[in-house]
Amino acid sequence: MSSQKETRVDAVVVGAGFGGVYQTYSFKSAGYSVRCIERAPTAGGVWYWNRYPGAMSDTESYLYRYSWDKEDLLTYPWPNRYVTQPEILKYLNHVVDKHNLRESMQFNTSMESATWDAEQNLWHVVCDTGDVFAARYLVTAMGALSEAHFPQIAGLNSFAGRLLHTQDWPDDIDLTGKTVAVIGSGSTGVQLMTAIAPRVKRLVSFQRSPQHSVPTGQGPVSEEERKEINANYDKIYEKIWQSNSGFLTNESDRPMSSYTPEQRQEIFEWLWQQGNAFRFNMSKFSDITTNEEANRETAKFIEGKIAQIVKDPKKAKALTPKTLYHRRPLCDTGYYYIFNQDHVDIVDLRETPIESIVPEGIRTKDGTVHELDVLIFATGFDALEGTYARTKITGRDGHTIAEHWKNGPSSFAGVSMAGFPNMFMVFGPQGPMSNGATVVEVEVRFIMQLIANVEKSGAATESGAKKPKLIEVKPEVEAQWRKLCDKEAETSILKKATNSWIFGTNVPGRKPIVTFYFPGLKGWLEITRKEAEQGFPSYM
Ligand code: NAP
């Protein structure tokens, strides 16, 4: 325990992204004193750090927001089908101000450690600013994807130009007229390259694995469409809480084989014109991610589109995956088309790997030195473990999260860990695989239910007369949950992907894990609803 003077609060929330903002609001509106600490200078979470050009949500605007502020749902503007990073940042800060949450928030502050004090039943939270808090409840809403993955490439630090990672985009960079390389072609790389292609002198994608991408369908939302959505918001959310994905109000239960080959092609084409990767995957066919034949047919359709769009056969070949359609689905605003411009090129690292980074740029194994002004890593994240490695969280009996996760990150329901009483995670490992904006809502509500359950019994008094009842998940429940998550992921074709953060395989040295509860929102809500109805039997 620290000898510094501690500020006593009921709860500390770490992180002011989508999860932390709602968690802070929930504590505040339930009458708890709360301090939310955030390492960035403002609220926003991943949407503060990922400021790279083109950053945009690929959940449709009307669902990429909180459902709990009905007035805001009806009035807050979102002129286009998708919200961009600056719009999301503005929206989150608007919510913070509208609900007077800024007074409970402290920016430019990182949690260095949190230690459970079993004598006093408190968490002691030490920050890099020198602030120390003592709190009954600790909620980490630090995000699963908040630590950059920088692959160790020989000579990385020798580059004489500007070296960037999309996860920490500087404000002072102007790419106009520059020769730029991008390493990484996932959700981030595809958005970034599409956005910067028109303004750079030369753009080269150093691509290790091409992925299948479909159009977003980005475009303006008419007044009539908005009115229609507003008139139906209650019904829309009723359906969303009944969905697996949290993205769609119409998830198909018809397998691809129930359509004729001609019908399938018509449907694919219609889906392509509509846009949205999640709609493409789930709204018309039920088995794209579970049936290999259906998956291959989908992949083939997208590969046909690549062949149609990309004129240069060499570039088209490099952009065409030779795998199943088994990564996190991508969508774009014209990605394949940028390769029809002479100043946009691609190096297929499957054929010509990178040998090293040199002061001038990238040297590939064929001896070519690709001279560059700017080298951008869009190489993703050291998910979960990377995030939690930034701080030392010590639970009961000196047991740290690093020790708890020695076989890979785990939790019960994405929220609780055995041996970490009165601590909760928002978007922790093995939470529902669904739209992040809905996941944080249901998880925060579950956390508040758990807290209300012990507090209503009067057990959590601070009189000292009786030991407050703690909220601590049973170890066997956490172990069973992990097994269940492994089992639920078994039949998914996504499991066949290599180098995927969803399975903990994108960062060398990390233990493979199943990061999500695959049945998604609906299944997770059924389980946690039962927990609440039965008095939370998974907790001691
Ligand atoms: P990612 O999906 O992990 O992709 C990383 C990319 O970097 C891959 O193309 C990977 O190639 C490449 N890479 C990694 N190490 C490399 C190396 N040593 N040499 C060459 N290439 C290398 O990361 P991300 O694109 O940042 O996306 C991560 C997640 O963030 C997404 O799944 C999504 O959940 C979220 N995200 C969402 C949005 C949105 O809402 N629209 C936007 C951006 C990100 P390999 O495939 O060969 O490993």
From TrEMBL:
TM spans, by residue? none
Pfam families from the entry?
FMO-like
Q: Does the keyword Ribosomal protein apply?
A: no
Specify the superkingdom: Eukaryota
UniProt KW Hydrolase keyword: no
Please provide the record's keywords in A-Z order.
FAD, Flavoprotein, NADP, Oxidoreductase
Its protein name is Cyclohexanone monooxygenase
Question: What is the native source organism of this protein?
Answer: Sporothrix eucalyptigena
